[in-house]
Write a structure and sequence with these properties.
Strand content: under 5%
Distance between the termini: 26 Å
Helix content: 55-70%
Largest sheet: none
Order of helices and strands: HHHHHHHH
Structural class: mainly alpha
Radius of gyration: 17 Å
Shape: globular
Length: 246
């Protein structure tokens, strides 16, 4: 049922996504390396997520599809492109990879004088006081559903048999940049339950108490995306492994 190579690729890919992209987010918003402009931190972090995902799409996409995101995997299962059993294996590997990536990142930052996971954090998502704009819980849930819907919709159509071959990685990476550009000031942008869970387990406190929203809302958005894709495009085999994440 499980393909060890695919699961290993999802584990390593998700770990790299968290290590690099969440690392950049922490440097910008935890250590305040964005200088006098918060917008600079938003742009830098958004491109970090998109570029590392693009690289993973072309690197491990031919092996596992580079989902590196439980919401993306659920989208493929719901759209009939992946069997449930295989999807479960993917999610387990992704969550394990995200936790591993967060632990390694935490250890790297721990060697910086005066670093504290309670102060500088680890690029966690949040709402209310944990949001740059103090977006409330309801607004955060809607935001994550909508942004994940957009992200997973792009992935499903970019890997459709009628899509431009070879361009999926670019389209998916740039879509992740776009949703982060609007989402970071609102929730920090999850659109990826594994990406949110790994750092939250390390930081604890508010991040851990709020992580349920960033586990549930992206999954809802992914199911809606799959339904819309089926309505518009119908069932279709992908022409390239389905690369994706957050």
């Amino acid at each position: 049922m499980f393909d060890a190579k695919k699961l290993a690729a999802e584990f390593v890919g998700t770990a790299i996504l968290v290590l690099v992209a969440v690392g950049v987010a922490t440097e910008n918003f935890g250590f305040k390396l964005f200088g006098t402009s918060v917008a600079a931190g938003v742009v830098t972090t958004a491109f970090a997520f998109g570029l590392v995902l693009m690289a993973l799409a072309y690197a491990i996409g031919p092996i596992s599809g580079a989902h590196v995101n439980p919401a993306v995997t659920l989208g493929f299962v719901a759209a009939g492109r992946m069997k449930v059993g295989e999807g479960v294996g993917y999610v387990i590997a992704q969550v394990a990879g995200a936790i591993a990536g967060a632990v390694v990142l935490w250890q790297m930052f721990s060697d910086i004088p005066h670093y504290s996971r309670k102060v500088q954090g680890l690029g966690t998502d949040g709402y209310g006081a944990a949001s740059l704009t103090h977006l409330n819980q309801t607004g955060a849930f809607v935001t994550e559903v909508v942004l994940t819907f957009i992200f997973v919709t792009v992935i499903l159509f970019a890997t459709h048999k009628a899509a431009i071959q070879g361009a999926a990685g670019l389209a998916i990476g740039m879509s992740l940049v776009v949703v982060h550009l609007i989402g970071i000031p609102l929730t920090g942008t999850s659109v990826n339950p594994a990406r949110s869970l790994g750092p939250a387990l390390i930081v604890g406190g508010t991040a851990l108490s709020q992580v349920w929203l960033f586990l549930l809302a992206p999954l809802v958005g992914a199911v809606i995306a799959a339904a819309v894709h089926l309505l518009i495009a119908g069932r279709a085999d992908v022409v390239v492994p389905a690369p994706s994440a957050t």
